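User: Let's play a game. I give you a shape written as tokens, and you guess the letters that built it. Ready? Here's round one.
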């Protein structure tokens, strides 16, 4: 009897073993095993990341950061040895036991994430929220300069706004933006101010005004706000446009805030164009191509169809796309019209001409053709702000960052004439301070627009452009004459005498503002001058425009942790901005206040 029981047990064990082996070799189990993939992480993090946002931890020069995770790493070879202690039951074995005894639950491997169509392995990694290669140039803040040593302050105007909307993208996710991304002049110039416009009969394409008030964050100092407004053009009087949409459709654009948003943005633009305007579409990825030859806007449905058919995939050969776009623009050039290339990209040029200096040199050459450039930045994670800002500066153009549909509407609908129609180019400002009134000064922002004094009269030196209706604001912090300030000076000259004051220094002028500009197709600049009288008011009595612009400037300094921020605080910024809202037609100033509050919680 004992022998019979023993034989029965052996038979039962062998049966179970045979059933498990058959299950292991089943086709479904084999395919399941092949589809299972191992997740590899270079670094483990306990911190959660905001979806769709890239973590930035480094500072200033070429600010990049982020760890790399690959969700779909290759499966190790079947011959690789595994530690017995880490061996797991196969899915087939557990499944077989479940059918035999009805107890154990099947263990399912997680479904591998699908790679977006057209993506390379690097693209796949790049879209991971922890992977970040954003690039920003380091900013060296303008220092105080003694008027006795440097009486002239010269810079190129800037109407770009990309820094503000990029900052907003960070703060909406309770993250502080990289210091290198915060350009004070672009924060200040994001907003409209109540500046006087030039008269309709004026031969000068812009009007200038100034206001002088006490400095709210530094006792004893003053703030000088300079405001410039370009002439506004009526829509029915706008010149015909010859536009080339140069669109990045590489794999890096295959993301919700990139190509899909780009299509919506350019649809907004198309709806604003007149029937006589022309549009061509050039795209670039691994290679460039002409999707739509220059087409008049009485065929908008044809243009929209070509735009909406675009799909992303491949690497990024931006250089070839730029060459083709300018070629198409010149082929369809409209004399006395608005000829412009609109580049929309994340700036991730990784094949073809990838060297930054070569790309900038190419754009500088193309700008001589009188074809202007608008640069529109999209996306995050691999965004190359440093390159796009330089391209816009050298391409006789403007630069905006599109982080939302509302921003697209602002740039390409509400402010379309300023975005597309240039009324003056190579616009330079030179301020001569009166040493009898001002001991030292500091220009807030415009660090990468500062020019040598001698460049002001050199028409070969490139400068910024002003579009129709555009506003430009610049703020100086002044140290009145007789006030003590520690600023490195220069030794007394051995072969020259010190400068002597002229009789005009004894008047009431605090400074003289000089401007040079060229007509959109001109080669010779024109000079205009505006004296500014010393009519200082208390900051509390200054205009809403001065108060609000000062609050934005202070906020930028706080984000940068500037050594010049003085007594400014986020609470002061909020209270000052709230008191200076004015009409705020599109609620941009109210949104600014909410961003400041977000900054209080940002990490």
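Assistant: Ready! My guess for every position:
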């Amino acid at each position: 009897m004992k022998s019979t029981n023993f034989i029965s047990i052996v038979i039962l064990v062998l049966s179970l073993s045979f059933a498990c082996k058959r299950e292991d070799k089943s086709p479904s189990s084999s395919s399941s095993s092949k589809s299972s993939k191992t997740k590899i992480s270079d670094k483990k993090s306990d911190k959660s990341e905001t979806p769709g946002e890239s973590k930035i931890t480094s500072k200033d020069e070429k600010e990049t950061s982020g760890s790399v995770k690959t969700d779909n790493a290759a499966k190790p070879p079947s011959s690789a040895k595994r530690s017995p202690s880490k061996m797991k039951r196969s899915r087939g074995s557990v499944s077989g036991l479940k059918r035999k005894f009805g107890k154990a639950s099947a263990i399912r491997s997680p479904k591998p994430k699908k790679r977006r169509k057209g993506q390379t392995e690097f693209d796949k990694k790049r879209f991971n929220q922890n992977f970040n290669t954003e690039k920003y140039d380091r900013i060296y803040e303008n220092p105080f300069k003694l008027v006795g040593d440097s009486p002239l302050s010269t810079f190129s105007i800037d109407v770009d706004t990309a820094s503000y909307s990029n900052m907003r993208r960070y703060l909406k996710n309770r993250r502080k933006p990289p210091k290198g991304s915060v350009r004070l002049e672009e924060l200040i110039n994001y907003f409209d101010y109540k500046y006087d416009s030039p008269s309709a009969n004026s031969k000068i394409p812009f009007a200038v005004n100034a206001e002088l008030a006490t400095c709210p964050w530094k006792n004893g100092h003053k703030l000088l706000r300079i405001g410039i407004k370009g002439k506004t053009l009526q829509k029915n009087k706008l010149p015909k446009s010859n536009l080339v949409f140069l669109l990045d459709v590489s794999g890096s654009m295959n993301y919700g805030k990139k190509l899909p948003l780009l299509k919506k943005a350019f649809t907004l633009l198309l709806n604003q164009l007149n029937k006589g305007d022309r549009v061509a579409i050039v795209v670039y990825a691994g290679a460039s191509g002409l999707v739509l030859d220059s087409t008049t806007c009485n065929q908008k449905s044809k243009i929209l169809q070509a735009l909406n058919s675009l799909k992303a995939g491949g690497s990024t050969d931006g250089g070839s796309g730029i060459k083709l776009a300018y070629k198409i623009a010149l082929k369809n050039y409209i004399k006395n019209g608005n000829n412009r290339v609109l580049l929309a990209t994340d700036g991730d040029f990784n094949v073809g001409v990838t060297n930054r200096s070569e790309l900038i040199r190419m754009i500088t050459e193309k700008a001589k053709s009188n074809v202007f450039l608008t640069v529109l930045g999209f996306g995050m994670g691999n965004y190359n702000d440093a390159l796009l800002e330089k391209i816009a500066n050298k391409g006789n153009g403007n630069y905006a960052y599109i982080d939302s549909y509302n921003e697209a509407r602002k740039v390409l609908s509400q402010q379309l004439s300023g975005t597309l129609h240039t009324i003056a180019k190579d616009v330079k400002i030179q301020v001569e301070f009166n040493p009898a009134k001002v001991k030292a000064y500091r220009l807030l922002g415009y660090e990468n627009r500062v020019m040598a004094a001698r460049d002001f009269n050199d028409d070969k030196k490139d400068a910024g452009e002003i579009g129709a209706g555009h506003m430009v604001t610049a703020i100086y912090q002044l140290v009145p004459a007789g006030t003590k300030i520690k600023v490195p000076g220069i030794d007394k000259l051995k072969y020259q005498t010190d400068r002597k004051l002229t009789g005009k220094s004894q008047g009431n002028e605090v400074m003289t503002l000089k401007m040079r500009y060229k007509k959109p197709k001109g080669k010779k600049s024109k000079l205009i001058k505006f004296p500014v009288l010393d009519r200082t008011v208390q900051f509390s009595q200054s205009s809403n425009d001065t108060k609000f612009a000062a609050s934005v400037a202070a906020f930028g300094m706080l984000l940068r942790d500037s050594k010049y921020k003085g007594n400014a605080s986020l609470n002061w910024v909020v209270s000052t901005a709230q008191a200076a809202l004015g009409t705020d037609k599109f609620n941009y100033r109210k949104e600014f206040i909410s961003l400041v509050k977000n900054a209080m919680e940002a990490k």
